[in-house]
Structures are given as C-alpha cells and as structure tokens.
Task: inverse folding
C-alpha cells in the first residue's frame, strides 16, 4: 500500500523534524505530497538517507523543521490604490520568502474593501499570487465607523473577518451592531483598539523617550480603554472579537482576565512589538514609527509573558508597506507602519524560541493553527488530505537583515542590520515550491 | 580645538568641556560686539542658509546678526507651511538649496527631530534653531552663558524652570546643559503641562510654585502658549497666572542675588508681571545680547574644515 | 618631524640690547613718542610690545598707549584648518584713529599674520600710519609686506623652525633655529 502511495507522490519531504501543534506531532518524518494535498505522514519507516539523493522529487530535509504553512492574519497589501508600495502579487512573493503560505489582507486600501465587489476583486487578484490570500473586509462603509457594511454579502464573497483596521470603530453602538451582526455568520470582528482623543496626534509611545525627544506621545491607556470596551461588548453580545496588535502590559492583563471568564476574545501581537522598544526611535528613525507605537521594556516583557501563558493567541506581522518618499521625511510627517513579512519568522526564532520564551510547538501554533481556528481557514495543520501548505525552516542559519534585499516593494523596516537566526528554507503552497532559499 | 560633532543638534550628550569651549569663545565675540566695527572677516568664504519653517523673530534675527558679524554670506528661507502641505518635500527643498553650494544650515522646524533628519540628507553642518518640543541648543547655551557671566560658575546653583515644560524645547536644552555644568535643576508647572517621567532627566518636579521657589537662585520663566487653554490642558490663563505667574511677592522665597530669566517673547501679566520682568534682577535683555555672541561662537566652532591633522 | 638640536641665535643680553635699539629707532623716526600707540600680536608679540612700551616711556617720559590683538578671526585659513584656534582676548582700549601704530610681533615669516593684523587694526579705526616691528625676520614672504624695525635678519630654510622664547612665557629670553632633518 505504501508503494502505491509513493507512486502518486509528486514530492516527498524527507527527514525533517515535523512540528504540527494541532496533532502535537514533534518527530522526524517524511511527508508525501501529491495533487496539492498531503498524502501521507510517515514517522516510522523513513526513507533511508542513502536513497534520498537518487530521486529528484525526494528532498533531503535532515536538520530542517517542517511546520504547517505559516499564516499571517494581519497584512496590508495596498492594492487597490497604492500599487507603488505593494500589490497582492508582490506581497505574496514577500510572504512566501518569509515562509507564509496564507495571508489575510486588511481592507484599508484606496478605495477600501467594503462591499462584495471589492472582496471579489481581491480574490480575483489572488489567483495569480504566490500564496493564498484571504480578504478581511471593512466593518463599516468607507471605514468611517458610521454604517455597517453588507456583512452577509461580503461573507458570501469569501471575507474571513471584518475590521476597520487602521482606525478604531469609535462609536460604541456601531461596534455593538458589528458584533451582533457578524455573530450570525460566525466571523470575528478584528478591533484596532485606540482611543483617538487620548492618542490625539501622538507619534510614538508616551514615556521617558517621548519626553527626551519632544515628540507627542500616545499613552498605553489609549489602547487599554478600548480593549476594556471591546471586552465588555464581547461579553454583552456573545460575539467573537479579536484584538489586533496588542502592545501594552495593561492590554495583556485585561485580555488575560477576560479569557479567564471564558469570553470569546482572542488577540495577536506583532514581532516588532515583542522585539523592539521605544528606544528604537532615539535616532528619529521613521521606519520604527508604527501604530500602535513601540512601547517600553516593561510592555515587551508583558507581551512575552502573554505569549507564554497563552493570553496572546497569534503572532501577526501588521506588514505595512510605505514608499521611501513617504518615510524619508520629518518624523511627524511620516506615516505609521513597517514591513514585516520577511523578518517575522527570524524574529520569532531569535527573540522567542532562542531566548526560551516559547518552545517551538507553541511558537508555531501562534503562526499556524491558532489564526487558522480564529478565521476558520482550511490551513494551519499537517494532516492527511489537507492542502499541502508547508513551511520548511532552516533553524540554524544566521543572517543579517538587509531591507534592500526584501522582495516586498517597500523597504521600511527598522530591522536593517539586525542579525537573526532562522529563516524559511522552503515554502510550499498546495504542493508547489513557491520559495526556496 | 574642536567640538566632537560637526552639527549642533542639541545639548544632550554635549560634555562640560565642549559647553565651556563654546562659552569661552562667546566671551571673545562679546568683546567684538563692543567694538565700533562689530564685524570680523572670519567666515567670509562661508555661506549659511537660515531655514525657518516656523515663525520666529528673535532667534532668526540673532542668527542673522551673528552670521553678518562673522562676514558670512547668508540666505533666508522662511515659510510657515510644512513641506507636506507645500507639495515639495523638505528633503527636496534642502537638497536643492545645498546644490547651490552652501556650507551650513540653521534649521527651525515645528517637528522634533528634523535637524537629525537633515544630517542624513545633507553634508553641510546643521545647527538646530529649535525643533518642535525637542531642543533649542543655542537658547540653552545663551542662558548658561548669561548665568556664568553673573555667577562665574554654575556648580551648586539651583535653577527652577517654570511653565509649560511638556511643549518646551528651551526647558529640555536648559536641563541638559545646566546638569552638565553642575547646576541643580527643578521644573515646575501644572501636571497637564509636565511631560511623562521627566524626573528621569535628573530634575526635581514640582506642581506647587511656592515650594519650588524656596531656596532657588535662578528662575527661568517659560512663555505660556495661549492655545493651551483650547486644548483643554489649562482651565484658564487667569488661573494659570494666579498659580504659576511670577510676581514680586513670590521673589521673597528666592536666595539673595537671585536672577529672573525668560526666553521670550513675554506675555506680560500672565507668566510674569511687568515689574518682575523689568526688575534689576532680570537678565532678559542680557540673554538677547548674549544670544548673538553664543551664535557667533557656535558658527565659528562648527565652520572648521575637514582637513587632516598634519 | 625629527629635527637637530637648535642653534642659539640670540641670548638674553642681546635681546635686551636689540629691543632698546628698536625703541630708539622708533623714537628717532617718529620724532618722539607723543602720537604713537603700540599693539602686540598675541601671544609673544604682546610681551615684546609691553617691553618696548616700557622702554620708550622710560626714555621719553610720556604715556604710550598699549594694546593686544588676537588675529584668529582675521586669518585666511579658518575654513581649511581641522581645529579652530582658541580665540584669545583682543584688548585695544585706546582710539587708533590718527595715531602712528607700532605693530609688534616676534617673527616675520610669510606675512599672513601681519596682513590679518593690519585688517583688524583698520576695523578699529583709521590710524595715521602703521609701522611694523619684529624681533626676527626669517624671510620667505608670501605677501608684499616688510618690517620697519628688525631685531635680526636670520636666513632660514622654509622648513626650519625659529623658536623665540620669552621670560614672561617661557622663563628665558632666547632665539633658536632648529634645522630640518632630511628624511631619506
């Protein structure tokens, strides 16, 4: 029987350490792939090493780690509107280079993705992409926070969540209705938590560093009051809410408390929020200007604790491409955001796994099965008959970040020159190798 | 003799020796300003651009005079619109100006960090003439110069900076400079105008003015921006004036031989009474005079070539 | 640059005699000292100017105004030097207008220092004339400048070093010439 399966297999990943958090698999094995699906996962009768080299379709992955294809549930691809900064196509190349096989793009494009037609546009464009693209549609028309979008319609078109990301839904009643309405379709509302009156026209975290630099501060409480509101609304409506890019200790504590009460709250943080502090702004580097802002060491510690104890479910990039012209200006004038698809995995390995914050299985879960479950994607697991979306990681390679080498159209990264450990070695989407180191 | 950097972006990180070098040089220029011909040919071959993106009268005039007295060629570029509104980016503007062969740029901008940004765009020397709420190093230097002329040394001097510390670049430059020179510094203002964790800069923080003034030698009174009331940071200027205005009665709490400073322009009757501003202990006009000497010193010290030491 | 041991050109006694001679020459040429003012160029020219003033006052029994000048700000090489020279005090407390100014320096070499000093004096006012007194003229002029009173002409090579030591600063009165050592 093995023999017949072997024949069907178009690609065999041999000898890699398979880490699949969903099935708790953490063992060296061979994965057989055919017709874009996973045919077999063999961890007992492995193909002998000496045979591997005789066959083209058998890849020797000894020393590598095989995980479900990584999922980024928070990406900005800028299409339509700012194709000079990123397109769905270039974003997908950036994604597979970083090891991501599935990415979810946010609706704050120009015009925003706020109706069935625009969701269809995303999926149409996604056909030529190198990885799988999912649309997250706007919760309110024009992202204005005033009227709900046609949620039923956009769900039918394939949107996996709704969000006004980039802005909060400021009117609490509208947020309530968005939650109640989306509950009918069992999709989460992703909330960008920011009290705009508290963040005012701040450009960085409010703290000692903002005092030194004389830059206007965004206090942590601007995020936390909204997190608190969302938690109360989630409890009140019973709907699913996902808090995007958690950045403060206070937010982590509020969410931990909410989870203890078994509320349907999930959340994510980003690699830059657990890797950097506001000290990164000391040179007025606009590439480190991001919203929510980079916080303090204390917040970073709290995020790591939240990742460790499961309060924080996911790691998402908040990949936000901006052109050099937009970023190469005086600090106040620069837009918020940084590109993250190609540094995320290296930062997770370097900052979390290598520093013993998370074991491999936990870290991989936050990049695969956890976002998949929140968004109900057919992805994030290594299982027979699942799409063969797989990421092979070289966990030992040391490399230096050079934004000029990014596949993304934009180079706005504060990590230039940073030495990271670990990188995507192979990115396989539906059985096809879309990236090879 | 040379400053470590070819730019003057702020007083943060400037050593005591460097500050003293600038002050000593300014003493020589002060003498020149007393001559019948208040002009020397020193910077004859130097072209300076005064880039003022924010309205300014005294700082701009002070820099212009300093440049003229050193015989530099100067070009003024003033605009109150930011680059974003204007269409042309700041980088393009300055690159264009530099292409006309200039040597130094004096920059005043409403956005903190803009002088640092220019150092990455240009090869000229950059002098910060005030960037947002970040720093105003020449103001800090002239304040220290004025105090050193009066007290000879700053070690042990107690200086209180009163007012809108949060939005004040003058406060930050003064704190850095005064601390480097060995003075003890306190800040005083309402909580809404006090920046986060400022005590980490090594200053005492007061919200009660009378307590702050007790035993102080110098009071540096900051200008209160009339807009603060609109932003909700102050209930009223009337209340501010009662709680934080410097009047003759309050001067009794100060040490003998005290000094009153103000970086100007003054809102008489709000942060300081006319009587105090014009009192014999007020050095407000000396600050203005000394500003020219300090700016001449900075221009002179930063104008050196980049030739090799032989 | 390595140099041979210097050769003494002038000792204390000779220097004293030389200054007395220059003082007499100044008085003789200007028919007294009533209308003269003396300005020394910092650092060593200033000490020499002080000595000359003292000698002239003793001889003529009149008050001769004395000033000191730092010419740094009038140099023509400010933008090319790596380090900015320390500016010393310029103290010319008398009115130079219509006076005969005796400018004093220790060594006359390229003439550039004197050029800077002339410009500076003229910025103070319009003197009747300016005369130059130097202790040593070592040649190698780069500008059309000559001295009116010379202590000693010393022919030198361009890279030789003329070292003037004065009691006020160096605790001895002497002049040495250090020859350049040729490096193979």
Result:
């Amino acid at each position: 029987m093995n023999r017949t399966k072997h024949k069907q297999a178009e690609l065999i990943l041999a000898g890699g350490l398979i880490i699949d958090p969903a099935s708790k698999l953490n063992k060296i094995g061979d994965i057989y792939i055919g017709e874009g699906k996973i045919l077999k996962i063999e961890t007992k009768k492995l193909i002998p090493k000496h045979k591997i080299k005789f066959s083209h379709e058998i890849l020797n992955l000894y020393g590598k780690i095989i995980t479900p294809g990584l999922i980024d549930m928070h990406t900005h691809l800028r299409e339509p509107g700012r194709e000079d900064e990123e397109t769905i196509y270039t974003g997908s190349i950036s994604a597979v280079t970083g090891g991501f096989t599935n990415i979810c793009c946010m609706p704050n494009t120009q015009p925003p993705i706020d109706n069935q037609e625009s969701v269809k546009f995303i999926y149409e464009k996604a056909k030529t992409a190198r990885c799988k693209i999912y649309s997250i549609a706007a919760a309110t028309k024009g992202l204005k926070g005033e009227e709900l979008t046609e949620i039923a319609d956009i769900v039918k078109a394939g949107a996996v969540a709704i969000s006004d990301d980039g802005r909060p839904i400021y009117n609490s009643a509208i947020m309530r209705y968005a939650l109640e309405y989306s509950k009918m379709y069992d999709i989460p509302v992703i909330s960008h938590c920011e009290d705009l009156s508290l963040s005012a026209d701040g450009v960085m975290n409010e703290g000692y560093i903002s005092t030194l630099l004389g830059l206007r501060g965004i206090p942590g409480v601007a995020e936390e009051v909204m997190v608190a509101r969302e938690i109360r609304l989630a409890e009140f409506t019973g709907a699913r809410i996902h808090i995007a890019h958690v950045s403060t200790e206070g937010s982590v504590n509020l969410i931990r408390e909410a989870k203890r009460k078994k509320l349907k709250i999930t959340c994510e943080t980003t690699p830059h929020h657990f890797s950097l502090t506001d000290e990164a702004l000391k040179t007025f580097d606009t590439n480190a200007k991001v919203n929510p802002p980079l916080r303090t060491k204390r917040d970073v510690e709290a995020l790591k604790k939240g990742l460790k104890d499961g309060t924080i479910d996911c790691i998402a990039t908040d990949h936000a491409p901006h052109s050099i012209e937009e970023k190469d200006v005086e600090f106040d004038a620069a837009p918020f955001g940084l590109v993250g698809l190609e540094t995320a995995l290296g930062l997770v390995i370097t900052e979390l796994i290598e520093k013993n914050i998370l074991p491999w299985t936990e870290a991989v879960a936050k990049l695969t099965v956890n976002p998949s479950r929140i968004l109900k994607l057919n992805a994030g697991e290594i299982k027979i008959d699942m799409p063969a979306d797989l990421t092979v990681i070289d966990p030992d390679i040391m490399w230096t970040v050079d934004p000029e080498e990014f596949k993304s159209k934009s180079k706005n990264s504060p990590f230039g020159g940073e030495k990271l450990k670990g990188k995507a070695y192979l990115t396989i989407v539906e059985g096809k190798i879309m990236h090879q180191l | 003799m040379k400053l470590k950097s070819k730019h003057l972006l702020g007083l943060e990180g400037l050593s005591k020796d460097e500050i003293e070098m600038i002050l000593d040089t300014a003493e020589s220029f002060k003498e020149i300003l007393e001559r019948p011909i208040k002009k020397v040919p020193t910077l004859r071959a130097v072209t300076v651009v005064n880039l003022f993106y924010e309205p300014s009268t005294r700082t701009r005039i002070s820099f212009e005079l300093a440049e003229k007295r050193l015989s530099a060629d100067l070009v003024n570029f003033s605009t109150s619109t930011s680059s974003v509104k204007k269409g042309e980016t700041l980088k393009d503007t300055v690159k264009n100006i530099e292409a006309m062969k200039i040597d130094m740029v004096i920059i005043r901008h409403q956005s903190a960090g803009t002088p640092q940004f220019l150092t990455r765009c240009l090869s000229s020397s950059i002098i910060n003439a005030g960037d947002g709420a970040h720093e105003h190093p020449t103001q800090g230097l002239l304040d220290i110069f004025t105090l050193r002329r009066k007290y000879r040394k700053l070690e042990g001097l107690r200086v209180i900076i009163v007012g809108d510390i949060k939005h004040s670049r003058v406060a930050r430059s003064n704190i850095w400079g005064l601390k480097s020179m060995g003075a003890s510094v306190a800040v005083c203002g309402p909580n809404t105008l006090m920046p986060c964790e400022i005590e980490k800069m090594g200053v005492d923080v007061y919200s009660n003015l009378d307590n702050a003034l007790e035993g102080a030698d110098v009071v540096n009174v900051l200008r209160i921006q009339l807009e603060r009331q609109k932003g909700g940071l102050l209930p009223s200027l009337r209340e501010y004036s009662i709680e934080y205005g410097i009047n003759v009665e309050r001067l009794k709490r100060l040490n003998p031989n005290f000094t009153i400073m103000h970086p100007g322009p003054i809102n008489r009757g709000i942060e300081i009474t006319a009587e105090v501003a014009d009192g014999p202990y007020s050095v407000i006009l000396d600050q203005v005079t000394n500003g020219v000497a300090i700016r001449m010193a900075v221009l002179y010290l930063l104008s050196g070539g980049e030739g090799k030491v032989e | 640059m390595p140099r041979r041991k210097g050769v003494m050109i002038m000792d204390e006694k000779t220097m004293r005699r030389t200054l007395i001679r220059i003082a007499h020459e100044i008085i003789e040429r200007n028919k007294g000292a009533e209308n003269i003012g003396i300005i020394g160029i910092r650092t060593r020219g200033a000490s020499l100017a002080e000595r000359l003033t003292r000698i002239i006052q003793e001889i003529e029994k009149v008050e001769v105004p004395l000033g000191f000048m730092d010419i740094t700000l009038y140099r023509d090489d400010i933008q090319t030097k790596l380090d900015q020279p320390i500016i010393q005090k310029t103290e010319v407390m008398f009115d130079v207008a219509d006076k005969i100014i005796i400018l004093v320096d220790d060594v006359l070499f390229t003439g550039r220092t004197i050029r800077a000093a002339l410009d500076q004096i003229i910025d103070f006012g319009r003197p009747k004339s300016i005369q130059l007194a130097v202790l040593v003229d070592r040649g190698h002029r780069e500008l059309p400048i000559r001295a009116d009173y010379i202590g000693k002409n010393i022919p030198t090579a361009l890279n030789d070093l003329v070292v003037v030591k004065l009691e006020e600063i160096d605790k001895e009165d002497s002049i040495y010439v250090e020859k350049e050592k040729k490096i193979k």
Remarks:
- The domain at 139-287 of chain B is CATH 3.40.50.1370 (Rossmann fold).
- The two ends of chain B are 14 Å apart (CA to CA).
